[in-house]
Amino acid sequence: MFDGKERSNREAPPMPSTEGVEYPRAASWAAGNCTNVLNDDKGKQLFRVFLFQSLAEENLGFLEAMERLKKMKNGDEKVQFAKDTLNTYQGSINLSSGSMKALRNAINTETLDPEEMGPAIKEVKRLLENDQFPRFRRSELYLQYLEELLPRSYAEKWAQSFEGLLNNHVGRHHFRLFLRSIHAEENLRFWEAVVEFRSTRHKASAMNNLGRVILNTYLAEGTANEVFLPFGVRQVIERRIQDNNIDITLFDEAIKHVEQVLRNDPYVRFLQSAQYNTLLGKLNY
C-alpha cells in the first residue's frame, strides 16, 4: 500500500505494454471523463504511472482501497483494513476538514458508515477528474504511448483533412510543436481552450469562469498570448461576458477566424515540414 513517508524510495510502477492495444482504444481514454481510463486495465496503469510521476498516486491508491473495502466480508478484517487505510492516506490526500472528520469518525468508531465515508471518496474522485485527468490527457507520457500505436495511415490522412489533424491527439501535438517553432502557437492554444470551454456546457459556473480566463489570456489587448481577431469580434465577446450572457456559442465567431488562419498558411507549411515528415517516417502501416 502507498506510504507517503517513503514516497522518495518507492519503485515506479511499470509502464503498460502496447501489446493487444489498438489506437482507437487508447485514444478513447482521453474522451469523456476519468471513468474511461479507470475502466481499462492498460489505461489505468498508464494513468497510475502518470500520477506517480506527478507525485499524486495516493489519490488513486485511496480510491482503490475504498473499492477493496466495499468488497470485504469479514467484519474484523474489514475494520482493520479501514484503519490501515486511514493511517496510510490521511496525511497525503487533500480533503476538506469536514470530509476528513467524517471519514475518521466512520473508521475510528468502526461503523464504516458509507454515508460518512462518501464525501471523502467524492472529493478525491473530483480531484482526479478536474485536475489530474486533464493534465494526463495533455501529458508527454500519454502522447508518447499514443504515438507508438498510431498507424501511418492515420497520419497520412491529415494531408487531406485539416479537421482530422486537429481532432487527433498526436497530430495536434506535432502541429503545436511546429507552430511553436514559427511563433504561432497561441492560435492553437486558444482553439484548445475553447474546446475545453465547450465541454463545460452543463456546468454554468465552470463555463463562466473559463470564459473569463480565455478572454483575459488570449483576447485581452497586449497579453503575451494575444490572438488577433477581426474588428468587433472581441468586443462582442467582452460585452456578452459583462452581461453574463455566456453559453456554448460565446467564441463561435472567434474560432471560425482562428481555424481559417491556421488552415491558410501554417497547416500547409506543417505538411511540408520536417516535424510532420519525420513523424511519418517513424510510423508503421
Automatic annotation (TrEMBL):
Residues in RGS domain copies: 33-146, 161-280
Record InterPro entries: RGS, RGS_sf, RGS_subdomain_2
Annotated stretches, region: Disordered: 1-21
Originating gene: Cni-rgs-3
PANTHER family: REGULATOR OF G PROTEIN SIGNALING, REGULATOR OF G-PROTEIN SIGNALING RGS-3
Cited Gene3D superfamilies: Regulator of G-protein Signalling 4, domain 2
Species the sequence originates in: Caenorhabditis nigoni
The protein's name in its UniProt record: RGS domain-containing protein
SUPFAM superfamilies named in the record: Regulator of G-protein signaling, RGS
Biased composition (Basic and acidic residues): 1-10
Pfam family, one: RGS
